[in-house]
Known about the structure:
Layout: H1 4-34, H2 40-65, H3 73-102, H4 105-122, H5 141-154, H6 161-169, H7 173-180, H8 186-220, H9 227-246, H10 256-269, H11 271-298
Amino acid sequence: MFSLSKSRWVFGIFVPCVYVIFELGFNHQILSVTADTVNEETLKGLEFWGRFLSGIGFGLLLFQSTKNFKRFLFLRLLFTLLLGIVLMWNLQKLMTDYWVDAATPEIKRSAFVLATLSSGAAAGELTTLPGDKLLNTAISLGEQKIVSALFPAASLYSDQPMTQLASWRGLGTSTFETQFNAPQTAENLNNAFRNLIIPPLTLGFSIFFALFNFAQLSSNLLVFASIAARRVLSAGVLFLLISLSLSYDSSFLDSPGYKNSLRPGLWSGDVTLAVLTEWSFRAVARWQPVSEWIHHHALRDFAFGRPS
């Protein structure tokens, strides 16, 4: 059986460290494949890894919360990881299925159109009906990927949606409405809507659990500190990481176009989607250089494809 110091290094530092590396690498991979509309197979791969890794992150949280039970550490770890995976898997599945089932055909059609506008939004080419830009300054390639992945969710409940979408497509309203209402299969519409909700849902959970477990890992480095002291440090580090994430200046979220024409409708239309979208915009951008480095160098561009 591990001694207390060895168990802390293995279960409190090594295991969370491996998890954080994979979670941050996955965070970057999401951006790499969702900047454009992806097929059903890729979506299922992202859903699998998103739910699985978030479940691992939640399981490690449960494991750390039961650290007073010092016996059977390995079995306790396996049990809490399994419980975390089951809970997070079903939570994210319920959220995704609820959004898809609750969305009206018009919302799904809007998602289909918004997916074609993502690259233009990332390039700073789009303005709102009052003439406000969605990007006022040039942004890095990494931030362009974030805007491209999250723009559809951020714009889903824009003011005067039909007129706004027609303007972004460079069409008259009547011409656009004819194209908008053209026959589409239910599969295509559902796929477009899942393309819209998966990035904020998966990115939001992914970056939060990565930060939470990094905070736990940091506190466990205090080998000789008491449990109470480590808990205080963990809470302090987590508060600092979340504060740093939310303080990131997002060229998209802070633009007049988003604040005046997109944000009010998003928050009144779907609060959960609004929270996940804005959190993802700021937090993912804050830690994007770290996640990119980890994905390229530590994980060697692991694809996170759907297991066969």
